[in-house]
Amino acid sequence: GLRCDMACEVPMDFWRDVLPRLRQDYPDTYFLAEGENVELHTDAFDSSYSWELHHMMNSIARGEKGVKELTEYLAKDAEQHPAEAMRLMFTSNHDENSWAGTEFERMGDASEAFAALTYVLPQGQPLIYTGQEIGLNRRLAFFEKDSVKELVDLEYGKEYRDFYKNLCAFRHNNSALAAGANVAPMVIVEDTADEVLAFTRQNEENSVFCLFNFSAEPQTFTVTEAVAGDYLCVCGDAKSLVAGEVVELAPWQFFLLSK
Q: Who is most buried in 2, 113, 128, 255, counting CB within 10 A?
């Protein structure tokens, strides 16, 4: 796989000429564009950066935007991009960490909820940036070598290793979360609290139910007939949802469930 730096600043005629010819000789090559132009996916790149989603998540964490703006963005983005287009989704990367701060600086207690979201959205391709897998809470130098010495200690940030391991396993073990031309759609559960996002994704093999409280206040969710059933949590524990049951959600709490 190849990441093309600032691909959005290179004329599209170049990419449309070069990338198809490269794929003739290397059909399994994957191309990631640093950019968000829709046309990057026209006979060119496999994946592009979802910068707008990233800034949306930062704004929600600060209480400036909410679920309404998030769902409007997701609908717009899905309409603009072809189904097979993959969108790199992230809570941090090399630019954000060094210049805007770690996910903890920008998102605070909401950081884990938004990390989980990047694993379950349609067309999404989640990114783990250096140090996130151990909860590294410092900015890395941009123009100088800055070793992450904390990675040597296998006990450092173990809870974050487990967190991302569970997310990766959940995504890979549930085909309803796969990206690609036959991506399973996101079906939003209506009539929830304003700051609660609940949705399903389902294909012929399995079903996933995702429930998020995207606010700093406790919220509730009433289980509907459509989502009731027996599930496995992202951590592997069993969980049952009964129609009419009221689920209490702590600030920024989320559930990722599959069956």
A: 113
